TrEMBL record:
The keyword tRNA-binding does not apply. This is Aspartate/glutamate racemase family protein. The keyword Isomerase applies. InterPro entries: Asp/Glu/hydantoin_racemase, Asp/Glu_race. Keywords: Isomerase. PANTHER family: ASPARTATE-GLUTAMATE RACEMASE FAMILY, GLUTAMATE RACEMASE.
Amino acid sequence: MHIGLIGGIGPAATVAYYQRLCAEMRRRQAPLEVTIVHAQTMDVVDRFNRDRREEQAEDYLRLIRRLQAAGADCVAITSLGGHFCFAETRAISPLPLVSAIAPLDEFFASRGVMRIGLLGTRLVMQTRLYGQLARTEAVAPGDDIAEIGQAYQDMAIAGECTEDQRRLFLEAGRRMVEDQGAQAIVLAGTDLNLAFDGCDPGYPVIDALDVHVAVLADLASGLRNLEEVADDQ
């Protein structure tokens, strides 16, 4: 199956998706067909901050049509923040959309993780992954949630993580584990690999990107079909 990726939001997340999808398909000894299109980061950030869902969905539609013309069978958005208009995009998309959020609830429950702490954009944290977790309880940072959300947005745009930003994210995760009872911290922003890769924060970390990549790899290698995935969303 030919996988289409909407990238650019931000560049580091797009690179991480491509690298990990390639590595997973290589591990499975299966071929990969993938096409990536580029969303304009600042346009997405502006619409995200103003909650312009229909406007962003229309822009995604333009990119999805480009992926369709390239032969893609399905589409994934390489950003959890970029999922803020997922429902609006799915309603007008000519190709099936593969959610990065829907598989997470099943993943957590299957591993006995019933309470998670979220790091990502302000909206992702405040809405507890857009309210799409049914079997898992989610907690978010407290008074500094706006600061963390802004730091994440700045990091995603820059494509690099400063030491101050890294300390902010690591400390926020620690507090959610120690003070709010989170069993694991979920990197619910796909650019957070910039802060956490190669780092041992002293608590369990689950990267939402890896869960999404596993679903895409299952589709690409024929282990799952689009109807199965659509039923889970």
